[in-house]
Amino acid sequence: MNKIFTLLVLLVSLRLSAQNSLQFDKKFVQSEDKWVAFPKDSTDAYPYGFIYIDAQAGLTFDYEGSFKINGTGKFIPKRREVVGQVKYRLEPNNNLIAFIPDSKLAELNIDKIPDWLKGYKTGEGSVERLYQWGFMYNGWNECEKALEYLEKAQKINPEYKGLRTELAFSYNCLKQYQKAVDILKIALKSDPLDAYTNKELIYAETKNGNLEDAENVCRKVFKECADKTYNAENAYNVLQAYYLKNDIKNFNRWFAETNSHLMSDPQIKSLAQQMKKEL
User: Which of 66, 98, 183, 266 has the fewest CB within 10 Å, making it most exposed?
Assistant: First the structure.
């Protein structure tokens, strides 16, 4: 009886071990150059494959097939039936996937780094590629990861077009506002009327508490920049700063001064009016 009980405990332990070898706690954007498994489907099989970045397509999943986990915890693969590679472009979202442990790669008959990946790594150390990767990660709001690429690009060529502004985006995202201000002021020396760079500077100045400086940049942008894309957002960022400080006098003054810009965007118009009502 004791032997049977011991065997049952061992089997349960092995089964739990197999389940625990897959931790579904990673997002797509955390999975670059990783073998991953998706939650099991209706057949109790786990779809799996390799996630990498394609310079043109962005985050991409190369589908390998599926696998099941037997009672001893072994991964039993079933390769895809389609001949050739099957790829899916991934849109960043909150779906969670699992990294496949290195100890299980042999059971799936796969190499840790697929041989075909080298074709996508050409020029990966160039400033162009590093900037592009940083730009993509900023777009996915993975700013700390973006900064790794962008700071490497900065060491190669700090004058690369758009690099300083993209670095500032990361700094703003990570609440390193003074770093953003410093690098944006350098960027604006060569292109003082770039609308996007000025937008990032206005945002950083408001978060840094330099509202007078932010107002002055806004006025320059309103008057001199041909690109009016961010005018409503710029006006709103300063207005919100006064709202958060409960500074009614300056809130009302700025609301009146920038009313035409605030009212030009329906969403910002609604937010501005709501803040005014609350104050």
Answer: 266
Return the beta strands (E) in 80-226 as ranges: 86-89, 98-99
Cα four-point dihedral sign 201, 203, 206, 207 = negative
Are 29 and 6 contacting, i.e. CB atoms less than 8 angstroms apart?
no
Residue 117 in 3-state DSSP?
Answer: helix
DSSP codes joined into one string, 240-269 = HHHHHTT-HHHHHHHHHHTHHHHTTSHHHH
- One DSSP character per residue, 6-34 reads HHHHHHHHHHHHHHHT----B-GGG-TTE
Give the tokens for residue 96.
Answer: 């969670």
127-278 — its CATH code?
Answer: 1.25.40.10
Asked whether 165 and 181 are in contact (CB, 8 A), the reply is: no
Boundaries of every domain in the chain: 2-120, 127-278
Query: What's the whole-number average pLDDT of the chain?
Result: 91
pLDDT at 16: 42
Beta strands 46-54; 86-89: pairing state: unpaired
pTM: 0.82
Q: What is the pLDDT of residues 122-180, one digit of tens each?
A: 888 899 999 999 999 999 999 999 999 999 999 999 999 999 999 999 999 999 999 99
Q: Which helix (H) or strand (E) holds 68?
A: strand 58-69
Cβ atoms of residues 115 and 85 within 8 Å: no
